[in-house]
Amino acid sequence: MARRRLTGVLLVGGASTRFGAPKAFARLDGETLAERAWRTLGEVCDERIALGKVDDALPLGFPVQDDGLAIRAPLAGLVAGLRAATHELAVVLPVDCPLVTSALLLELADACADVATTRAGPLPGAFRKTALPVLERRLAAGDLRLRDALAELETTVVEVDTRLLANVNTPADLAAVAAQ
Fold first, then answer.
1. Which domain range does residue 53 map to?
2. 66-124 pLDDT tens trace
3. Per residue in 18-49, pLDDT tens?
4. CA-to-CA separations, 136 to 3, 119, 139, in angstroms, rounded
5. CA 104 to chain centre
6. pTM check: above 0.90
7. CATH number, domain containing residue 152
8. How many domains does the chain have?
9. Measured in whole angstroms, how far is the alpha carbon of residue 117 from the centre of its chain?
């Protein structure tokens, strides 16, 4: 697949309390979840930005920008990613969704109004900078539920194979994904 004028935003993870260690370093098929997500974004995006907490000092092999907030919430990383993005359109991938494909990211990008997500959403998803005012307002108000913000935005829901959306929150989740 050719790269497009598209920003890829990788959310490198929160506290990983249920997993017991940073999920970014969990391994699947010979690579870390972070390496896997970064590669997938690179297959379709001509710009990639990783967001997290610089204080976590995760040695990932690519730069991680701080989202600038003390809280740990996907909304914080999403807002920081959209602010930093060169392009109007960004695809956002959490590090703990290792089965998301570049084809799925392109499908989300192609369907994006203000936002494109799946029924399982809100992440992974595609977001335009037009969504920023709503997302920034909700973040400033401490309303961190990204799903609630989608109700205020023109959101397209893309039907996808739900197996691609497997979320790794525990070591058992990782084992289940590896067994697929």
1. 4-179
2. 888 878 889 999 999 999 999 999 999 999 999 999 999 999 999 999 999 999 989 99
3. 776 778 888 899 999 999 999 999 999 999 99
4. 28, 23, 5
5. 13
6. yes
7. 3.90.550.10
8. 1
9. 11
For residues 164 and 104, the answer to whether their CB atoms sit within 8 Å is: yes
Cα of 170 vs its chain's centroid, Å: 18
SS3 at position 169: coil
Task: Specify the pLDDT at position 15.
Answer: 61
Pick from 105, 87, 83, 84: nearest CA to 37: 105
User: 15, exposed or middle or buried, with CB in 10 Å at 0-12, 13-18, 19+?
Assistant: exposed
Pure H helices in the chain? 33-44, 74-84, 102-111, 132-140, 146-150, 171-179
Amino acid (one-letter) located at 4? R
Residue 41's alpha-carbon distances to 6, 19, 23, 74, 173, in angstroms, are 10, 23, 18, 17, 22
CA angle 62, 68, 69 (to 5 degrees): 125
